[in-house]
Design goal:
InterPro entries: Aminotransferase_I/II_large, NHTrfase_class1_PyrdxlP-BS, PyrdxlP-dep_Trfase, PyrdxlP-dep_Trfase_major, PyrdxlP-dep_Trfase_small. Its cofactor is pyridoxal 5'-phosphate. It is a single chain. By secondary structure, the chain is of the alpha/beta class. Helices cover 32% and strands 16% of the residues. The protein has ten helices and 13 strands.
């Protein structure tokens, strides 16, 4: 692992997977975005539709906030509802009075982008491929007073043990753990959501990934009451819409939690199938980051830019990896999908890994 000052970094931290399927990519099979493809389910669409008759009134988030608090066994003072986890990163960046923020990379780039936009100088700790992109808490500078890490981490799909992440906690330090994909992990092992014994802990959750609600924007923050109060003061009035509040209540109900648990096991099986298929291309230079624990897989591919272009020609969009600090142009992220989709994708990947043969040059 190594640390890096971001002052001279030229990466596009605002590039996200949805850029791969906009405009001319709208008809592609989407393996670039990590939202589950078979969502939202019909019962959730009905819950959201049922809230539309209340749109004339200003949103009232009290019931949804209480439902989220109950889901994690916390008092409501430890919960803040947000317009997706992305808003939470912006609130933290604007409200935090920190001197030395550190972001552990490779990971979702929005936390660093938000910190930089708020005027902070951000230091990076870069996890290494040769270490399996696994965290060594000792690599984080002791003087860091804000540390951000994803778990499981986007894009590496690495799940850091809870006790390893806990070792980042210090009195006087804010430890931000992005658990946007934790509900895709069977049993949510390694989760810190709901913990009140870790000093400075701030956990971010998203409901948009598992439930296919990226267009609705709903997430939440779990933290000490004084942190929640500070973030709430930085929020605009009525930040979460009435339909999003209805979705939040529905998605933390017992029925939804049971369904999410079943989905996590299905994702795990589908991911294993995808990883096995990708591993079959090892003799053609494909390397899979393993073990993968999220609903996506990170792979190293020779001539990744060319492979992505050829995959697009064959009807598939995957996520480029070179906009993540700590990765380069040879990396690609692939979302986990059902086996029929994976089979078709693997066939396309086999063709994309072999560049087209140049036409013969006519004699003379």
């Amino acid at each position: 692992m190594r640390t890096e000052d971001t002052g001279a970094a030229g990466l596009d931290l605002r590039h996200h997977g949805d850029a791969e399927v906009r405009d001319d990519g709208a008809e592609l099979v989407d393996l670039a975005v990590n939202v589950r493809a078979d969502t939202p389910p019909a019962w959730l669409r009905e819950e959201i539709a049922g809230s539309l008759s209340s749109l004339a009134a200003y949103p009232d988030g009290r019931a949804a906030r209480a439902a989220v608090a109950a889901r994690h066994g916390l008092p409501v003072e430890r919960v803040l509802l947000t317009a997706g986890a992305a808003e939470a990163f912006v609130l933290l960046a604007r409200a935090s009075k920190v001197r030395r923020p550190v972001v552990v990379h490779p990971q979702f780039t929005e936390p660093e982008a938000a910190l930089r936009d708020a005027g902070h100088t951000v230091e990076r700790v870069l996890l290494r491929e040769e270490d399996g992109f696994r965290l060594d808490p000792a690599a984080v500078p002791e003087e860091a007073d804000l540390v951000v890490i994803g778990n499981p981490t986007n894009p590496t799909s690495v799940l850091h043990p809870a006790e390893t992440v806990e070792r980042l906690a210090r009195p006087g330090r804010t430890l931000v753990v992005d658990e946007a994909f934790m509900d895709a992990v069977p049993g949510e092992r390694a989760a810190l959501a709901g913990r009140t014994d870790v000093p400075g802990l701030v956990v971010l959750r998203s409901l948009t990934k598992t439930w296919g609600l990226a267009g609705l924007r709903i997430g939440y923050v779990l933290a000490a009451p004084e942190v929640i109060a500070e973030l709430e003061r930085a929020q605009p009035l009525w930040p979460v819409s009435t339909p999003a509040l209805a979705a939040a209540r529905a998605c933390v109900a017992p029925r939804a939690l049971a369904e999410a648990g079943h989905a996590a096991h299905r994702i795990s099986a589908d991911r294993a199938y995808l990883v096995a298929g990708l591993a079959s291309f090892a003799d053609r230079g494909v390397r899979v980051v393993a073990p993968a624990e999220g609903p996506f897989v990170l792979i190293r591919v020779p001539d990744a830019a060319g492979v992505r272009r050829r995959l697009r020609d064959l009807g598939y969009a995957v996520r480029r990896g070179d906009t993540f600090p700590g990765l380069g142009a040879e990396w690609v992220r692939v979302a986990v999908r059902d086996r029929a989709t994976v089979n078709a994708f693997l066939k396309a990947l086999s063709a994309a890994l072999t560049p087209p043969t140049a036409p013969p040059v006519p004699p003379g």
